[in-house]
Design brief:
By secondary structure, the protein is an alpha/beta fold. It has 2 domains: 2-242, TIM Barrel, CATH 3.20.20; 252-321, Non-ribosomal Peptide Synthetase Peptidyl Carrier Protein, Chain A (Orthogonal Bundle). The chain has 14 helices and 10 strands. The chain has helices spanning 23-31, 44-48, 52-56, 76-90, 104-107, 119-132, 150-161, 184-193, 207-217, 234-242, 252-270, 272-285, 293-300, 306-321, and strands at 2-3, 6-7, 12-14, 37-43, 67-72, 94-99, 137-144, 166-173, 198-201, 221-224. The strands form 2 sheets. The chain has an 8-stranded parallel β-sheet. The protein has a two-stranded antiparallel sheet with strand order 1-2. Helix 9 crosses helix 10 (234-242), helix 11 (252-270) packs antiparallel against helix 12 and helix 11 runs antiparallel to helix 14. The protein is globular.
Length: 322
Amino acid sequence: MKIGDLEIKGRTVLAPLAGITNLPFRLIAKECGCSLVCSEMVSAKGLQYNSQKTKKLLETAPGERPVSVQIFGAEADCMARAASYIEAEQGADIIDINFGCSVKKVAKTGAGVALMKDFHNAREIIRAVRAAISIPFTIKIRSGWDSSATQAFEIARMAEDNGVDAIAIHPRTAAQAFRGRADWSVIKQLKQMLSIPVIGNGDITTPEEGIAMVEETGCDGVMVGRAAMGDPFIFAGIEALLRGEPWAEPSLQERFAVMERLVDSHVDYLGERVACKMMRSRLSWFVKGLDGASVFRRELTGIESRDQAISLIRSYGDGLVA
């Protein structure tokens, strides 16, 4: 898959997930076979006000490249300055704009999915950002505000005409959020309309579903979000099946080894107290459906240290393979 002049060695993409796709998680996803990773949403206003919390979201590492940084906002000049800063100072390979976030505190500012019903401002933002950067430029959209997907098609055509290099689409409406089923037919229609790459997103929970999306829609890439939170191996599975190679689910030992690396990397990145609080929920994502998972999840609620977390992981894992 090629986005602008950037060759992506594969066809899988980690969706940007607020509070999830930080640097440690992106490195795990990359290790597990993901071809292109994306940052959490970064506020253009936060960068304008020199927020250190916002700037931390921009930290990248060589091992995750190529990496896309997603920004959000509702003012063309502010978005252009943010994109220019990220290209010049942070070494991003791609700038992405969020046209899909339906969270009220984002949409009520005119950003995220609200841009899909403000065609004029959407065009001004895209033109300003395109003029401000030389690296590849993408956007992530939803179907729009209703099931017709008219807004998605209008925004997509305009984006291509104004220099956007690829479009990712989550084919649910703003009102749906993550409820109901993603309408993959919208991905297919978008792919037939555009000459730039189209990346499909929505309801991919297994490698086989990733292949089904490609076969049904003709999309150029497959973006996975929520399913990857507890199963980053899904990327390697999709890539293998796309190459026509066999794929086997990771062993329990491999799964638990990744859980340990998740703990260590978050402790190094965020500090032990913050990381352990975060791991209380995140480690539970990796054990869904396993015997004794409910007991393990209860034990996780009390972790206070890295050593305690690692000990719980090993104890639980040893019990499963015994």
